[in-house]
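Study this pair:
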Amino acid sequence: MTSIRAVVFDVGRVLVQWDMRHLFGKLIEDRQELDWFLQNVVTTEWHFQADAGRALADMVAERKGEFPDYGEH
C-alpha cells in the first residue's frame, strides 16, 4: 500500500482549468442564452461564494428562487 506524499491545492486554476461553460454548455445549447446564463445566473462570483465557505445548498435554493426557469440547471 502506498502512502500519500503530497497534496496539491490548485486555488488559482493553474493545473486544472475549470470553466463553467463546459458544464452548462451541455445543458444550454444556444450560445447567447448560455452567455446570459453565465453572466447572470451562475456567475464566477456566485460560484466563489462556495469556495469562501457558504453552503452550496443555500446558494442553489436562493438562485432557484431568483431564476426559477433555470431551476433544473
The two ends are 41 Å apart (CA to CA). The first helix runs from residue 20 to 24. The chain has a mean pLDDT of 90.
